[in-house]
Amino acid sequence: MSLSSSAALKALSAGAPRAGTGAGHGATGRPGAGMPLAALHTDGIEWREEDARLLALEATEILDSEPEPSYDTITRLTAEYFKGDTVLLGFADESRMWIKSYWGESVRELPRKGSVFELVLAADGPVVVPDVSKHPSFADSGLIIRRLEVGSFASAPIRSGDGKILGALTVFGCQPRREMAAEELHMLESLADLVTSQLELRKMRKTFGKSRQQNTRATDAAVGIWPSKSDLRHALDNREFVLFYQPEVELSTRKIVGLEALIRWKHPQRGLIPPMDFIPLAEESGLILPIGDWGLSEACNQIQLWCRENPNEDAPRVCVNLSARQFAREGLADHVEALLRRSGIASHQLGLEMTESSLISDQDTALKVLTSLRRLGVSLLMDDFGTGYSSLHQLHLLPFNVLKIDRSFVARITEGNDQPLQIVRTIVELARVLGMDVVAEGIETEEQYALLLQLGCKFGQGFLFSRAVPAGTISEMLHLPGRILPEPAELIAAPKDTAIIPLQAQGI
Length: 508
Hints:
By secondary structure, the chain is of the alpha/beta class. It has 19 helices and 18 strands. Strands 9-10-12-13-14-15-16-17 form an eight-stranded mixed beta barrel, surrounded by four helices. Strand 2 (96-103) and strand 3 (109-111) form a beta hairpin. The protein starts with a helix and ends in a 15-residue tail after the last helix. Mean pLDDT is 82; it is low at 1-41, 207-223 and 492-508.
């Protein structure tokens, strides 16, 4: 955008028409403008309209795109006009607020839940909060954007050409401020409408005919495929996904030292559905991103709950698997930092697991994201280690804390074949040299257990100790004396309704 600051502001103040706004949605007529503070909450969000809104957002192809000077100009103009401490221009999908441009605090993304965007979406218009401490949504916890403790903010919706709210342009101040005048609110909306204009121009630059009008519900119904993308979206909206947890134990003592969070789909008609029945579709359809973000948020909330249940002892580290698409986001560290801050848990209580395949494609990005995560203090685990072709070459360059030996090697170490045994021995020794911990996955027999101990492997998980179980069962396990699981022989003989899940129990 070539307009100078003064010329652009003058043009905006002249009252240019707003793209995508209907009758009754002017600068002073939108619901958010005159709404009392107590009424500004997210109960007004029309969740049934989310599919249409998300399709409109998808059509822009703006998410995770490269920086563009025109959007940076808009955030700079906004900061100059309102003398803001931070300005964020972002777009919201199911789980996150992705920041296209910022001025002030460098933010790449934030969790959507509890965000300013949700207030804007609920109000279907601008939201102005002159004093955050007096707002019911933030009175107890406050509002912090990276290092900025927010005292006031004003936010206007960014709409699609047909009026759907795709994101928000938000000005944050570190101090409370006076009420916003009508002409100031008009200016903020005009700046947000500049973003809409840029989106429309961006769409026009795309090759004619490339725009994708999707009607997945009708297609899926005609073909009869289950599950479909709309089934997954419905499950996400209706909170049908749940997390199960499998203990990681210190092999020498069987003490629970960590947990791996594993997703399940609790379908109201079909029952408990394992991840392999829906994760591939989630990957293919792109819904793995919001589903994965939900898992991260849910795990943080559960850690917080276990901390409350066990005030005299830390909750064990909970490890969450990241998809390749989650890991590829430059804003992942910002997202994780916001979740940690919101839940109030210590960073060392969260672990993030990545497979080697999610790292190989772009080593520079991998190193950048991993380094930013390590600065937060979270644990980084390389999952399924040993199955990728470049493991030994890359490993010393990447800041991982833990290697997880793939279950395929553990399963074969007692079969009389020297190769799997040698691989496991090499991984254990390599981790020792690099100062990393090792977790052996898929321990199912006492023979495997004994051999891993002989090889010097300190930690492990598998059916021999416990299958993945609901959070309530883990709560019972955490109250065992010393958090030590029974001997494997006792596990096998235990009744099925005990807290410690025997080998014969259902689920994985």
